[in-house]
Amino acid sequence: MRKWLSVILLLVAVCTRGQVDTSYVEPSHYDFSTMLSMTYTYDIYQLKSSSGQSITLAPEPTVKVGPYFGWRWIFLGYTFDLKNLGFDNTGKKEVDFSIYSSKIGVDLYYRRTGSNYKIRDVNLGRKMRNDPMEGREFDGLSVGITGFNLYYILNNKRFSYPAAFSQSTVQKRSAGSWLVGIGYTLNSLEFDYQKLQQMMEESYATPVAQLDSGLMFNSVKYYDYCLTGGYAYNWVFARHWLFAASGSLGLAYKHTRGEVESSRWFKLNNVNFDGIGRFAIVYNNQRWVAGANIILHGYSYRKSRFSAHNAFGYLNVYLGYNFGLRKEYRK
Fold first, then answer.
1. How far, CA to CA in Å, does 324 sit from each of 26, 28, 37, 146?
2. Among residues 17, 71, 129, 197, which is most buried (max CB within 10 A)?
3. CB of 233 within 8 A of CB of 245?
4. pLDDT in tens, 42-87
5. Residue partners of 214: CB distance under 8 A and separation at least 6
6. Which letter does DSSP use for residue 328 in this model?
7. Which residues, 6+ apart, have CB-to-CB distance to 57 below 8 Å?
8. 321 - beta bridge partners?
9. Rounded CA gap, 61 and 317, in Å?
10. What does the alpha-carbon distance between residue 151 and residue 137 come to, in Å, rounded to a whole number?
11. pTM of this prediction?
């Protein structure tokens, strides 16, 4: 992972250089920014057996607030969990780092979901009522996701991702661009199926409530290699206002460590699809900036016995102030 990080940062340093069409994109007039941000985080996980049994789990959403400080296109900050006042005893950890330059974008993420899940939906078969388990707490699931996404913006002279997501430029006229990229993710899943079976027996008080064998596993670790393609569009619908939307679909190959060690490690049924969506609305008059953005990630993993689907996302709302006028804009 460290080697990949070094390569990514080198690419960013190289690709941040270059000219843009100033009739479409205007650089920020200021070197420094300060910002107050609120982040709403949500994730959901579904496990499903080949026979149709499924369970959907999600923790309570987290809301964090905190200050940020930026120099040109680099922002650093820290947010506090309002519910736990910065102290989380559930084991949940999140480190997310994104870079948006004129030519490339990078997402780095490290997530450990903790064990404070609740059962949101359950399907145990036609003859079983599902409501006795819905809404109950379940601490037998823990998910870890570590990886990166790297993508290239083809129309980088007229389309600006930073205008929508890092506010280091301003989109003056509407424009769009195709995106191409690569990604790598290491997913780990720890699942206490015996605890779930015990909960089923307590909820239904009948021996009929049996967990399908496809869901009887303790842990899975799989690697995800992905090629992505998509499209992004910045719509300037009024003076100083921008609405941005983009979507990328990834063709991903997933395998466990045991599979890659076998003599026939490439299997067609290991090919799945991942997705990333981004949406933003921004007001930026060069001095003041305000807005909100949503970033959504979706992953799927299918095997003959079971499948797993994970989605997580962020809603960011912010208010910022720019200062330190650059020399070229001083009168």
1. 17, 11, 21, 36
2. 197
3. yes
4. 889 888 888 788 889 988 888 889 898 887 767 777 777 766 654 4
5. 49, 50, 51, 53, 305, 306
6. G
7. 44, 45, 46, 47, 117, 118, 119, 120, 138, 141
8. 34, 288
9. 15
10. 38
11. 0.84
